[in-house]
Amino acid sequence: MTSRHVVLAAALLSVPALLLASLALGDQTVSRADLESLVDGSATEQIRMIVLDLRLPRALMALTAGMALGIAGAIAQAVMRNPLAEPGILGINAGAALAGGLVIVGLKGAGATLLPVAGFAGATLMAAAVFALSWRNGTSSLRIVLIGIALGSLAGAGSSFLIAFSDVADVQRLMIWLSGSVYAASWETVRLLAAWLVVPVALACLAFRQLDLMRFGDDIAASLGQRVNLGRAFLILLCTAISGATVAACGLIGFIGLIAPHVARKMVGAGHARMIPASALVGGLLLMAADLIGRTVIAPAQLPAGIVTALIGAPFLGYLLWGRRHAAQ
């Protein structure tokens, strides 16, 4: 058994371990005996509520959202041919944030119901605008990146305007959502997110050949029979659908889409037939761990998962930049 197989097996075994830890740990610790009582049906109503109604949906939401962000990051890095790319580089997160902010500030009580729809719509509209503006007898990764950064900055300025001039209560709700968290997860939101993700995730797994060709460059991909512009548009659509659904459900959670593909590439290699599932596995583990850390490190207070992933992701980005600098020398 190679070292890669050992690491992959350890990652797979980490999923049930993290799930059990997420069920047991928090501001009120649930003992092993209490967890076993859920199996034999003798658990108290309080234990059932804590574990089955609060912690289990939250852990599954973190796992599902992290898997989605890992897959979206793998797609973004292949399409952009940039190891530092993530869905946010396309302006997707900024578009979703602005749309969500408009709903929270403008619709008051109705905002909670429409927030997922607004976040998904904002991400989709931003991706469409980036692709349309980057079209010049075709598209290129560089134009998409530059326009994505520009439109993302513009949308970020719009969100900052809302924060500066809105009511304090609305701003607080908006800031909580922007920080990214799964604390409000329920069985309904888990089912809804899973339903949104089934089709785009399945298509992403089936598009591994297109992703493999795309990372070699437009000329090579075209010479091997790929319709480059159509393929790029399709892959960006998948990335947008996956990221938009996740942002709509959990808010803005950064760096998962950057870290997961890099770790997955070390585990299984660069071929996307294996890298897509591995990125999903690593992304799910990262977000589950971030949520667990966030709700236990300063319990009973909680840190949003997005803050924890930023604390992890910023040093990781520095590590990537330093490694590329060293390689260039």
TrEMBL record:
SUPFAM superfamilies hit by this protein: ABC transporter involved in vitamin B12 uptake, BtuC (SSF81345)
Membrane topology: Multi-pass membrane protein
UniProt cross-references to Gene3D superfamilies, sorted A to Z: ABC transporter involved in vitamin B12 uptake, BtuC
The UniProt record lists the keyword ATP-binding: no
Record's keyword terms, sorted: Cell membrane, Membrane, Plasmid, Signal, Transmembrane, Transmembrane helix, Transport
Origin: domain of life: Bacteria
InterPro entries: ABC_BtuC-like, ABC_transptr_permease_BtuC
Record's signal peptide: 1-26
Transmembrane parts of this sequence: 59-76, 88-107, 113-133, 145-169, 189-208, 233-260, 272-293, 305-322
Gene Ontology molecular function: any one: transmembrane transporter activity
GO biological process, any: siderophore-iron import into cell
Primary location group: membrane
GO CC, one annotated term: plasma membrane
Localization, UniProt: Cell membrane
One Pfam family from the record: FecCD
Family that this chain belongs to: Belongs to the binding-protein-dependent transport system permease family. FecCD subfamily.
Protein name (Swiss-Prot/TrEMBL): Iron ABC transporter permease
Organism the protein comes from: Shinella sumterensis
